[in-house]
Design goal:
single chain; mainly alpha; Amino acid/polyamine transporter I; 17 helices; 76% helix
Length: 426
């Protein structure tokens, strides 16, 4: 198996920044890689979670989806690009905020992403096991064996290097987009108005704002791809040098337009087909929208395709989150004073990830959901608030100050943060 790609410092030092030039194939690969990290299995629950609030909150969320996603991730990308050495996020936070703060943020960054990776490990095992049992009508292998094979297979892709990983993610995006589009189109003849039954009743301002406050994190985290932003920014700086901000902004805009248009079409197609009561029923049964639709229409094709679509969604998101989690773990190891070689460090990190993901996927501990929830506030701070704070405090980022979008990002970040904390305490 090929060794993993060289470290960030090596890649940056060995490359000569190109001029901006025309849109290239690797730009498309990154665009789809960002899409692949963001749009995972959670998308299959989004029509239920977002639609339960009613028509008007969903409409507002749909309008806010692109600016919330684009401005926040552009801010985090610019933060990583602002480093002098072309290092990843763990090095940039140390450069800007000092060693102590840098270590703390690196640890928080890792523990915000790693639980999501564990969740995907469990979900991947559950999905494949269920598919073998219910769709193929075979006896699934022991859970320990199945989870080991699945996780080892994904880590084999990662060991081929960052560029190969992003390439595989981008390839997995194509069937996922086709599946979402076909499902959305399949539902069009079945539109009954669905969620529009709540459109005639505009809720009181207090109730509307409360519903919106609780729903914003659902949309924020549905499009979150912060775990891969650091690697994305480093690669843009390596390729484009001083033009990295401009080209990364173009890639982010196209990626976010693609994910927002595709996902919202799918969401609205679902909520125009199912009534509010049916969405509530799906929520109570803890079913994905595909599973509920398969039962609703008694359609064996959807029932067969649902776990395959979920598998693709989970696999590509696992790869994207692995890039971020491994980056954080390498940063933590570096801050302990250990200085292993790049190849040795890659092997150690991959081995640790394999063992922990395999054990968790095998045991499926009930506490995992709570641990994932605790990462929500950390992600809100790192994605929305830290880059905006840096614009005020870091000289190399002050050129971005004064934009109205900065205020928007801070407001959305505070709304998401307080809503997530309220949900945890409630």
């Amino acid at each position: 198996m090929n060794e993993q790609a060289p470290s960030v410092e090596q890649r940056f030092a060995e490359s000569t920044p190109a001029t901006l030039g025309n849109w290239a194939r690797h730009d498309t690969t990154w665009m789809l890689g960002l899409f692949g990290t963001a749009i995972g299995a959670g998308t299959l629950f989004l029509p239920i979670n977002a639609g339960l609030g009613g028509f008007w909150p969903l409409l507002v969320l749909a309008v806010l989806a692109f600016p919330m996603t684009y401005f926040a991730h552009r801010g985090l990308t610019r933060f990583v690009l602002s480093g002098r050495t072309g290092g990843d996020i763990t090095e940039v936070v140390k450069e800007h905020f000092g060693s102590t703060a840098g270590t703390s943020i690196t640890v928080l960054y890792f523990f915000a992403i790693f639980p999501i990776l564990l969740i995907y490990s469990v979900a991947l095992t559950n999905t494949v096991s269920s598919f073998i049992e219910h769709q193929l009508h075979l006896q699934p292998p022991p859970r320990a064996m199945l989870s080991f094979v699945l996780i080892l297979g994904l880590l084999a892709i990662v060991r081929c290097g960052e560029q190969a990983t992003v390439k595989v993610m981008s390839l997995l995006v194509y069937p996922f987009i086709v599946a979402l589009a076909l499902l959305g189109l399949y539902l069009v003849p079945h539109w009954t108005g669905g969620i529009l039954d709540s459109a005639t009743q505009v809720p009181p301002a207090s109730a509307f704002l409360h519903t919106l406050w609780l729903a914003i994190p659902v949309m924020v985290f549905s499009f979150n791809h912060s775990p891969i932003i650091s690697a994305f920014a480093v690669d843009q700086k390596r390729r484009y040098g001083d033009h990295a901000d401009e080209r990364s902004g173009q890639i982010l805009r196209r990626a976010h337009l693609l994910m927002v248009v595709m996902v919202l079409f799918f969401v609205f197609s679902c909520v125009l087909t199912l009534s509010s009561a049916q969405l509530a029923e799906a929520k109570a049964q803890n079913l994905s929208i595909l599973s509920y639709l398969a039962n609703h229409f008694s359609n064996p094709t959807i029932a067969f395709a649902a776990p395959l679509i979920a598998f693709v969604a989970i696999a590509k998101s696992f790869l994207g989150h692995y890039i971020g989690a491994s980056e954080g773990l390498k940063g933590i190891i570096a801050k302990t004073g250990a200085r292993p070689g790049a190849k040795a460090l890659d092997r150690v990190v991959a081995g640790l990830m394999l063992v922990v993901c395999w054990v968790v996927a095998t045991l499926n501990p009930s506490i995992l959901g709570m641990i994932e929830s605790l990462g929500g506030p950390i992600l809100a701070v790192l994605l929305f608030l830290m880059p905006m704070y840096a614009i005020r405090r870091v000289p190399s980022m002050r050129k971005y100050s004064g934009a109205a979008s900065n205020v928007f990002v801070v407001v959305v970040g505070l709304v998401a943060l307080t809503s997530v904390v309220y949900g945890l305490l409630g």
